[in-house]
Every structure is written in C-alpha cells, then in structure tokens.
Records
---
Amino acid sequence: MPYYKERSGLCAALRQYSTLFRIRFIGGLQYRAAALAGLSTQFVWGGMTILLFRAFYRSDPSSFPMDFQGLSSYIWMQQAFLALFMLWSMENEPFELIRSGNVAYELCRPVDLYWMWFVRTAATRVSKAVLRCVPILLLAAFLPEPYGVRLPDAGIFLLFLLSMGLALLSVAAFSMLVYISTFYTLDSSGLRMLAASLTEFLSGAIIPLPFFPEPVERVLSLLPFAGMESTPLQIFAGTLAGKDALTAILLQLFWAMVMIIGGKLWMQRALSQVVAQGG
Amino acid sequence: MIQVQNLSKTFYVARREAGLKQAFHAFFRREREAVHALHDISFTIGEGEMVGYIGPNGAGKSSTIKVMSGILTPDSGSCLIDGLTPWKDRKAHVRQIGVVFGQRSQLWWDVPVIDSFELLRDIYRVPEDVYRKNLTELTEMLSLQQILKTPTRQLSLGQRMRCEIAASLLHQPKVLFLDEPTIGLDAASKLAVRDFVRQLNREHGTTVILTTHDMQDIEALTSRIILIGKGQILLDGSMDTLKQELSPMRTVTAACQGDIAALQLPEGVTLGADNTQGEGLRHLTFSVDTGITPVPALIAKLSEQVSLFDLSVQSVSMDELVLSLYRKYRI
C-alpha cells in the first residue's frame, strides 16, 4: 500500500469518474468553432427535413402516422440533442489508443478501463449537446406552429429526460462494444461504418419509427436501437404515451443493462488476451 | 520487492512472403510463427535498488515491463511485486507503481499539464495535502513552474518528458518503471532527467527499473544491470563485475608501414577496421584481450614486423561493452 492513507469509499470512487467526466467535458467545450458549424448544419438540416415531410403531409394527411406538430417537435429535439444520439460519430480516442498501443497507460491506472471509457464517451456527448441544444431550441421555439417545438406537460417532460438519460447509456454501451471489437480487429473502420448505417436506420434517426410499416415498426421497437434515439423523441412528440411509454423505458433499461454487462465481460476477456501494440 | 520467477510469454506473429501471390495465399491460410518474447525469466530486485534492464530491440525488455506493470498476462511463471501479482491484482498493484513509457504520453493533449495532474490525483485517490506536497516537491525538482499551465501539445519533448515523469510520481509509487525515458532528448534534458531519478532514489528510496539504449543513462544511474536477449536473461550483475569481466578488452590503434598481409598476430588479438586512406601509412585497429596478451606484448610483436609511427590505446566504452556482450551471446 502507498505511504499515505488514500481516500476511500464511494465518495472517492465517484470522484474518480466525475473528474474523468469533467476533464472531457471541459475539453469538449473548448471547440467553439466546431459547435458553431454543427449548430448551423443542424438547424438547416432540421428545417429541410421538416419541409420534406410537409410535402408528404400535404399530399395525404390521413396516411401520416404522426401529427405534424409532433413530427416537428421530434425533428427539432433530434437536432438539438444530436450529439447524444448520433452513432456515426464515435470518439476516436479509444480506437487510436488500441491501435497505437497507448492503451498501455490506461491499463496502468487503478480504474476500471470499461467505466473509464464509458464515462469519457458519455462526457464528450453531453458536452457537445450542451453547447448546441440551447440555440437550436431557442430558434425552434420562435418558429410558427406547426413548424416549431411544442413543449409537452411537465410529467411527460420528466419522462422524456429519464428516457434521454437511458438513451445516452445505451449509446455509450453500444459504442463500448465497437471499441472492444478493435482489440481483435485493430482496425475498426469497417465495423464502425456498418454499425453506424445500421443503427441510424434502426433507431429512427433517418425516419421516425412510426413511418415504418406496422409489423416492421413493432419489431424495431423491441430492438435495443429504438431505445438509443426513438424512444425519448417519441415520448417528447407525444406518439409514445401512457403505458406504452413506460414499457418502452423499461425496455431501454433492459437493453442498456444487457449491453453494459456484455461489454464488461467481453472487455475482461479481451484484456486477458490483449497485446499492446508496438515498442 | 520484486520477485520474478520463470516468466514466459509467447506471441504469434502472422508472416508471409512479399508479393501478390503470397498475399492471396495468406488470405486463405495464415502462417503464424511463435516468437518467444520471454523465456524462463527470473530475477529478484531489492527495495531501493536501481536496475538497468538492457538488451537490443525486440529482446523482451518492454514485454517484461508490461508484465510487471500488469498490462500483459504471461503464459507461465510468477511475478510478485510487494506481495501482489500484477495481472491478478491489477488495480491494487498499479497504485504502487509509476510507469513512464518514453515513446508514449499519459498527459491529456489539449488541456494544461496541471489539469492532467489533477485528474491523476483523483484517479489515484491521492488526498489533497499529500498531492500538494508531492506537486510542490516535483515542481521544484523538475523545474516545472513555467510549464504547468501550458497545454501539453505546446510543450517541447524535453519539457513534456519532465512532466510525464512528474505525472507518474504524484501518487508516490514505491516502484518506478522507466521505459526509455531519455529517448529523443537533448543532452541538457537527459542530464536533468538523470539527476532527478538519482535524487528520487536517494531521498525516497524508490525502486527504479530502467530500460534504455542509452548507455550513459545506465552508467549514470544504475549499479546493477540485467541483460536480456531473445527473451532470455544473459547476464545479471553489478556494473563493476561486468566491467571487470570485460575490461580486459582494449582497442589499439596503430599507424604503421610494412607488409600487413603477412602480419602475425599474437593470440587474443583481432584485427579490426583498416582505415587506410590512399598510399602510405596504414591505420589499423586491433582489439586486444589483455587477459591473454598484454598490450606491451602486442606492441613488441607489432614493432618486430612493421615500422610503427603512432599508437593509441583505449579501454572500451559502455556502448562497445554492450555490443561485445551482444556478440558474445549472439543476439
């Protein structure tokens, strides 16, 4: 043991991870230009998507599965919190650490590598989202009905926040699975590409899940991907409510746990076989 | 402090001949070759010792360090550091060690150094007062005052290395592993690093294990060296015995005229380079094992056969010593 009495207990353990979160959060806040660029892209993207759906809506409102105001809310919230959900943009650092062998340093720390990376991934996403969500939401709030954001009542909003938290956990846990696979493949670009396009489609990032044919939608809503984006957005938009919303949240919790436990076990296995590259 | 016994680790390396055809072949059938990175390694290091761990590239130095720091799990053998097995009690073990990989960085790239230090403080759960004390001491010993607030990416290599070393010592480890800490540094930075490590060892009794290719590091810091080659320990001894064992070697440079081809050399003498330029004097280099033939005997023998104009005698440097060890063990 060290010569001094180290800080111990839950508090010190939490502090380990909150510091990891903080340093990454601060790091993320530094990139103002990137935030500004992202902001304008997302605003324009959101606007164009809404215009596109408007054309469909005009041709046949009755076959439209969401009300138009709900759809607008869905899209603005999606754009505002894109950084939390997007799976096509994963953190490069773990891939780089594994490929170059710098993971050696990470393994010399008295911290669980899984949680260290998990916290870091989550922190990056939160810091990006915090910078971008406020201006987008402000702008969207001033748009005329039905193109702007419709605020739900407080109860639903709380449910939405809870569900968004769970979505963040799912996204981070899923990213971890992709990171860990890099221990075996060393180059993850193929897998990342595959994972990104698949999850984009299955999580409701491209088209909201209610727009899929009903049997397909029913299957998709049971998969872990729905909980990464669709569930919180649909709760906010009002298409998921009451008992359905609660079920969806429980499902989110279930999948997040499965991915976290699976990831932890897989990481343990990978580390016992890992060969830090180079030198 | 450190007991390593019969440590072995084998890696499998994919291998194929050059060329498209071979690449195609390898697509279906990989040929893998076993590389014995570590083969039956055993040594013991006492508390407060400074040990130089040397060997050519690929000898297994880094693998040993990785095993000792809990990163690599060996195939067989045991390793106890302060009573803990690194790869089994990883978290408890890494709290007591500090590691500096000269070719990698542990500081966060885009935040000031001090932020990285504070992160490490929390990760290692160092109490605030202990952290303050250590930081003050390290800042002073490594003269970091000016650079603590600079982002890591803007530091020079020498500055960064000093910060890296400080970073690995904030939690007061009992054992410090330095893996090529002076690689790429200029003379002044190297001296600063060496001075610091010496001081650390003297004042805190920190056990230091150092791998390096820089023999001056070894000479300046360690009294004991362990030589490893092809995954095996070839030599483990104090610097003095090593020098004694190998100091019979002398290099004699002679400028002479005469029939070199017919030169008869006494036993224990080999003719090295022939640095003759153009006509006239021949400049010859001999390496002499004075255990067999004393230098004066060689000179006498030489002067019988050729006419000597100039002579110089050097004992071997640390670099040559190591090279001769490599040759001796054919690694």
---
Amino acid sequence: MEKIILLIPGIPIFIAFLLLFIGKKELIPRVSIMLSSMIALLALYGTYYVISNDTQIIGFDGLLVYNELSAILVPYVAILGLVIRKYATKYMWDEAGYRRFFILLNFIFASIYLFVMSNNLIVLALAWQLLSISLYLLVSFNVGSNTAVKNAKWVMIIHKAADLVFIIAIILTYQTFDSLDLTILSEKWLAMSHEPVDNPMIFVIGLLFLIAAMMKSAIMPFHIWLPYTSEAPTPVSAVMHAGVVNVGGILLNKLAFLLLLAPAVLNIAFVVGLVTAIFASLIMLVVSDIKRSLGYSTVGQMGYMIMEIGLGAFSLAIYHLIVHGIFKATLFLESGALIKLARHDSNLPKRLTYELFWEEKIKSNSKKLFNYLAFFTILPVVTFVGVKMVLTDDFFELNASIIILAFAWLTGTQLFLSFFKVSKADSFKVILALVSSFVIILFTYEFIGLSLEHFIYGENAILFYEAATFNITTIMLLVILAAIMIVGWLFMYTQHFAKVLKTNENKNSLKWSFYKFLAKEGYFFNIIKALKRNKNDL
Amino acid sequence: MIYNILFLILAAGVPYYLILEKIPAIKSKHIFLLSAFALLSNIGLSLYVPNEHKTSLVIISLINAVFTIYRATKTTNFYKLAYYFIFVNAPFFVLYEGESSLYSLSLLLSLSGLYLIGRFYEKNYGSANYRYITGITLVRPYIGSYLTFYLIAVALYPPFPNSLFFLHYILGSESNPLWFAVVITLFFGNFFLSMGVMKKTLFGRPNANIHYVHMTIKEKIPHMLIVGMLLLFSLYGLKEILL
C-alpha cells in the first residue's frame, strides 16, 4: 500500500498529459490543483510512514526511494507547488499559452520529485536533464520577448554544461565503484571511510559532482544565469528561486558519503561557497535593478548553503534551502499584491520594525554609539556559544566550529545593527527584543538543524564534520577569526556615519573602483561584449 | 579496408553532401532522403558484417562533424538541417557501429519529423526556410509542440530515446581522449544547433507579414505517429538503461 507513494513523480506527468485534452480554460488550473493536492497528501502520508515506522519505502526495482531526505523535501516541494499553481491560476490567465504554462510547470515539478526520490544515478541524471529543459522552456515562456529568450539562452548553456559534467561524473563513478544504486554506493562509501583512501579518481568524481551542483545552484563563477531571468513570469521565478536552485544542495546530500572520502572537495566547497556568499551579497547591495538584486540575494544564499556543506553541516544545508525557499517564494508571490497596495498608500512598504519601535524614536546619542556597537558585536558570539553549549557541547571539539562561530557573529551583528539603525532608541524594550529574538532564532535554527541531522544521518552525522575539518590548528583558526572580527568591527565603526562627498572633494579611487566592480557585476558582461566585438572585428 | 570506407560513407563520416549540393538537379530534400537511406543501409549492413572501427575513421568522422556543425550554423533550411544532423552524429555511428543502431533509428525518426515540418513550410510558406517564420509557439501551438519535441529529442534531452540510447552506449564503454572528444562534440553540437532553430522559429514575435497556416488532420497524423514511436522507443530505452 505504501508503495503508492512512489508514484508521486509520475502524477505531474499524468496531469500534463491530461491537460492536453481539456477543452475549457477554467478546468486547466482546477484539474492541476486538485491532482497536485493529491501529491501533497501522498507526500505527507509518506513522511508519516517513514517517521512512524523508521523505515524507507523502496520500489521500482530499487530505482526510487522515499527515505528520510525525501520525507522532508517532497512535502515541501508539493506544498510549494500547490501554492504556486494556485497563484498562477489568476496571474497567468491573460497570458498567451496558459495551457503550455501549466504543462511545463507540471513537468518541472515531476523532474524535481524524480530527482529527490531517485535511488539510482541514471534516474538522477534523467531527472537532472529533464529539469534543465523544463526550466529553459519556462524561462523563455514569454517567447515574444527578445530579452527573455536571450537570458534563457544563458540558463540553457550553463545547465547543459552541468548535464555533461554530471554524466561524466556518473560514468566515472560506475567505472570506479561498479554500481549505480545509491543505497549500495552509500554503504560502500561509508565502509571505505573507516580506512584511509588513496584513490585520486574519487577526488575527481567528487569534484565533478561539486562542479555540476555549483552550476545548477548558481554558485560563482556559474551564477550568471540566475539574476537575469527576471523576465520570466513571477510563478516561474518562485519555482526557480525556491526549488530549482536547491538541487545542487540536494545532490550533494545524496552523495554525502562519497564526499567523506574526498575531504578536499568539502574544503573547496567551503571556499567557493564563502566567496559566493560574500561577493553576491555585496553585488546585491549595489545593483540598481530590484529583481537582479533579488537574484543575487539567492546566489548569496546558495553560497551559504554550499559553504555549510563544505563545513560538514549537510542537514543544515537542507534546512537552509527549505527556509530560504519559503522566504523567497513568499517574496516573489507577494510582490504583485504589495505593488497594488503601494499604489493606494504611499507609506508602503513599511519596515518590519516600523510600528514596534518608530514611535519611541529619539535622537541618537553619539557617545553611546560606540558602546552599542561593541555590545552588539560581542553579544551574538556569546549568545551563539551559550546556545551551542546547551544543545551540543561536543560541537566545540571540531575546529570547523570556529568558522560557524565566525558566521554566527557576522549574521548576528548584521541583524543587530539593522534593527539598531531603524530604532536608534535608548529603550530597554529594543534591547530586550533584539536579544530575545536572536536567542529564539538561534535556538530554532540549531534545534531544527540538529533534529534534521539526527533524522537524516543519525550517528554518521559527526563523520561529516570530522571529514570537513581543516588541516590547520585551532589556535591558528582562532587568530584568523579574531583578526576578521577586529577588522570587521573597526570597519563598521568607521563606516557607520555616512559621509556625503562634496563635489570638489577627492574621491577615494580604490573604493570607487571596488564599487564600480560590484555595480558592473564583476565586469562579466563587459568581457563578453568585448569578446564579441573582437570576434566581429576579425 | 573497402568495408571500412564503405561503412564510413554510409555512416555519413565524410561530407559527401558538398558534392551533392553542387548538382542543380539534386535538391536539399533529396540529399536528406539519400543520407537517411545510406544510414539505414549502414545499420542493416552492420548487423550482418562485423566491423571493428578504426581510430583513424573516428577521427575523420569527427573532423567531418565539426565542419558540418559550422555549416549547419549558417543554414535556416529544415531540409539542410535534417541531413546536417546526420553528418554531425557520424562519429557516434562509426565509434559504436552496430550497437548504435537504435540511436541511429531514433535520430532518423526525429529528423523525419523535422523533414515533414520542412515540407509543411515549403507547401505553405514557399520554402523550407524558417528564417522569418517566427513565433510559431504563440500562433500555431500544435506545430510548435511537434517542432519542440523533435528539437529536444535531437538535442539529447530525456525522455526522448536519443538521449537514453546515447547515455546507454557511453555508460558501457571505456573512456579515452577520442571518446571524450566525440561525446563532447555530439553533446554540444546537437544542442547548439537545436537551440538555434528554437530561437529563430519557435520563439520571437510572430511575423505580421505572414499568414500562419494550421495543420490539417491529415498532416497531423504522421507527426502523431512519429511522436508515438519516439515514446515507444523511449520506453524501450528506459528498460535498456535502467533494468
């Protein structure tokens, strides 16, 4: 009976075929939503079954599996799919190609389900490629627009390259480990991880899978396809930012035990994730186009996700991608309603803290500013350490914890300062709200992260942290962390007061160059244009 | 040796279309039919005459494929494109000989669809040239769908059989630099050419100077059959690759 859950990837394909024969336009979304609700119910039942019986559902000769990872991700994708279909019902009504849109939407969801539930590398490759082509057809949905078609071309080129890298990685895996079954492979990899492994081919395979994941998840330098797809219809943007870009993280989770054998790949993942997170977040702040800014925000979040994997926090990456997906989908789907409201009320959009703190706003006291900054930069670390000690005291035995600590500080400081900037109030209420909200967020994040870790990987979770450990001493890491904190803190302190340049005042050329570099998105398109010009000249 | 040369010619490993294109009596659609027939003969022959492929032949067909990709980027004619695709895929036919027969058949099936679309264009718009027949997806969704299916199949995307057979063969073979060169050339060559066609005729704003014509039921039937056969091939391909 429970095997019926394995039909989930087939249901959207069935819906797509059914839609071909439906005459009435009104029936297209109705049928689509009704049958998608069935997927959501099946997914929830599957999750209940996996949790209550502590077992996996395997079927179709071991090709598909509904395991712990699917139990988390499939209901998430199903519910997200339901919301997006409902939203698209009215949003897409006047667009040419209403039926085509729903058919393509069902295909892309089928490929995501297949990807999450696959237990075989070939099925994974098929889902991976199906996802590429469905995404291309959806991004170029507005076929009359040259820009949409041109941007879709970038999507396709990068995804096709990802397909090739992925297929080569699969072929090498098959030649090295003589199996395509993920359950068998994972057992093999776990057994191998207990002894030192000296096979460069494993590193090559791991690296190829990482590169494929980077391409699909828009990690730098393969990020360029994501920020430029804003011409796609809003529901497509929601699917893309909340679903498609996550497949890189899901893939690496499926191959987690392989990466145990190639710690260098984890270290590379950490570095590229870190560079992407920082660089994309900076570009997000300076680009003038709001939609591109959102695109870079997603790239930055994907950077964080890959960085978490690089640190061995595989399940945290899953939690991150779900939370980010919900947040970003909400943002895209709400944008239309917000624009409509803003047309009637000039005070919109309001800041989150506006109603809570604005009325108490008083003139800030510059003398106290220094104390506030010092307090707010130390407090996040103290809070984070406290929470971690309560939940997992053995965490501090790993030197990767220092990096996580550094990011807790970074995120905490960012959060505290943004709140502080809005309210600027000498109010006990503000401080209490800040501290308590941070503690709640940390506890939730850590508690859910740990629960997921236990649920998906059980006792093996610690192995990933050990594999991801850097080959440098803890003292060295602490020194680096302290240096980053001091430099960062000084930078924030000196930059807190915005200085308006007078026209005759000299600009800081280095700063301007850096700003220009970010605003031009790393001169990527300038290079492409120059190359094209040279080609034409020849 | 003679067998090798014969196989190379039949498998479109040499660009003999260059000579045929210069003969005024032979039109592009005839070249397609001729090269498709030659490929079918190659499939038939390879079943009866065992033939070990030689590295030099693969290299020749690879050079031919790269040259044909270049030629194909310059054309906007469905007939020409259809036979160019056969020549682009020649290194695969030469490399895998008899084993690649299913791939060859599914490719021929997809290209027949493309050929039929060319005939439709020729009948209704004067020639098989698609340069200015833009925005088909918007104005004639059925024709757009068929064309999309064929192009996706040729571009080696699942669930179409071409990609399944392609994956099946390359998975079971030993990799070497030449193998990589063939796989990468075909993987991207087919893809770029197909995407080019999509961009030029499926996408874009509909041309206001053209009266877009619907397909008649009679014209739809062969396309339905081709798509149906492609799906049947896909089921077989899935069975081959997964079980």
